[in-house]
Design brief:
Elements: E1 20-24, H1 28-40, E2 44-48, H2 51-61, E3 65-69, H3 77-87, E4 93-96, E5 99-100, E6 118-119
Parallel strand pairs: 1-2, 1-3, 3-4
Antiparallel strand pairs: 5-6
Length: about 120
């Protein structure tokens, strides 16, 4: 349903403040991209590049949702999730798996194959 100016209404917290999202990813470019998209929607976004920072930021920032990369350099995602859930069991967590494969890393492909596969 559109708001008074024809735009979709922004999601808000119960107190009227912006929705808070914590983006956790060790790939700065991807973290920036996700954060930018969420900020565009009017959300309050914080980023962490590793599991320990993510747990600390989650405690300080009290996010309404977490976007969590499944491969982090220091803690695995299950440990990060366990620690976050110990403090805030109701916060939804969206696990994200991304893999960009360079052409040289691809298995042999037939001459009819088109370009490298990319999954995000």
């Amino acid at each position: 349903m559109d708001g008074p100016n024809g735009q979709a209404p922004q999601l808000r917290r119960r107190d009227g403040s912006r929705v808070r999202v914590l983006v956790v990813d060790d790939e700065a470019t991807l973290s920036d991209l996700v954060s930018m998209a969420l900020r565009y929607e009017g959300w309050d976004v914080r980023s962490a590049g590793d599991g320990l920072s993510a747990v600390r930021f989650a405690r300080e920032f009290a996010p309404d949702a977490v976007v969590l990369d499944i491969m982090l350099p220091d803690l695995d995602r299950l440990e990060v999730l366990r620690r976050m859930r110990a403090d805030a069991p109701e916060v939804p967590v969206v696990p994200v798996r991304h893999r960009l494969t360079a052409p040289a890393q691809l298995p042999h492909r037939s001459p009819t194959a088109t370009g490298p596969s990319v999954s995000a």
